[in-house]
Amino acid sequence: MNELDLKLGSINEKSADPKFIQIAHRIRELIDAGQLACGDKLPSVNRIIEHFSVSRDTAIKAYQELKNLGIVESSPCKGYFVGNVCRKEGQKRIILLVDELSWYKDKIYQGLVDHLPEGFYVERFCHSDDFDLLKLLYERHCSRPDIAAILIIPTAGQSRDAQYFRFINPGKILFLDRRVPGTPHSAVYQDFTAGLYEALDAERNTLATYRRLVFVTRLSANPVTEDIAQGFTLFCASLGIPFARIRALFTETQIRGTLAFEHGDLIVTLDDLLLAEVLRSCEERAWMPGTDVGLIALNDGPFYSRLRPVPISTLSADFYRMGELAASFVTSGAIEPKRIPARLAVRASLAGHP
Questions:
Q1: Which residues on neighbouring strands pair with residue 267, listed in sequence order?
Q2: What is the dihedral sign for C-alpha 121, 125, 129, 134?
Q3: Distance between CA 158 and CA 181 in Å, rounded?
Q4: Which CATH number fits domain 194-316: 3.40.50.300, 3.40.50.2300, 3.30.830.10, 3.40.50.1450?
Q5: pTM
Q6: pLDDT per residue over 58-101, tens digit each?
Q7: What is the residue extent of each domain of the chain?
Q8: Which residue of 68, 148, 263, 342 has the fewest CB atoms within a 10 Å radius of its CB?
Q9: With pLDDT > 70 as the criterion, what percentage of the chain qualifies?
Q10: Closest Cα partner for 201 from 236, 251, 246?
């Protein structure tokens, strides 16, 4: 018997409380006493069954009771773990639904938390760009009385988002990063066509030295990627250079050796795996980014400014500012739609960098 088993204690067969309530109460007592902390993994359902000699249904109901209280969370990979124990009594919840777990999307969370007054607690959930999961998460939280706001990064496809949210009354919902046309909800968003065009145009003199712009993306596409490509197409037309697109496959092995860019190209990569393959291909050819080709990564990251052989230029919106404006929405209850401009951070991977 391990230490946690000793702390869990046992069922009181004479108690009027159902067994699942007793189990839930005991776990909550351990959390309230600080013996289980935020993020701590909880015993599996099978361990609860074995320890308390209860049915699977009872064990699952005990955890569901704790999930309903908002102090235990679960995931397919981690099982059950302690959730928002840092939340104080009386604090209002803010639900942040993100489409991916990434450094730049975490900047939204940081901007939000840094600009909220006391009295609010932010819970993040990832819907992985899956509308069915987004809808499930929204409906799980929307009717709770302690919810101050639900901040949503919609799916890249957006068609199902629009069909669903156009019937939801405005008030607690704010869309982030992307607008959802046809809905009554405000948004703090990027314009993936005009915004990226403007960011490139601001550095027109630096980019005019390249023979063509090559956008390295995935074989599958979504409306956001197509809007980005449209912005690049318009910029190339204004600069009088060709635009090309490479649609890569999905795994590192599939991508290896398939990116057919040329000397003098300006290459823009959609994600880190594609960026890594471009760098590997440059190394094989003894080409130096910033000298033989130009290289830009979409969305900034913590290491791009420190990468070798050269720091990587990035084309990115100010996600921290998105979070700051979301905090304003939470505290004021309303916000006018606000477009966040993009910026090209020129580093050594572009010729003519400062």
A1: 214, 295
A2: negative
A3: 9
A4: 3.40.50.2300
A5: 0.77
A6: 999 999 888 877 778 887 667 888 876 556 667 788 999 999 98
A7: 3-82, 92-191+319-341, 194-316
A8: 263
A9: 95
A10: 236
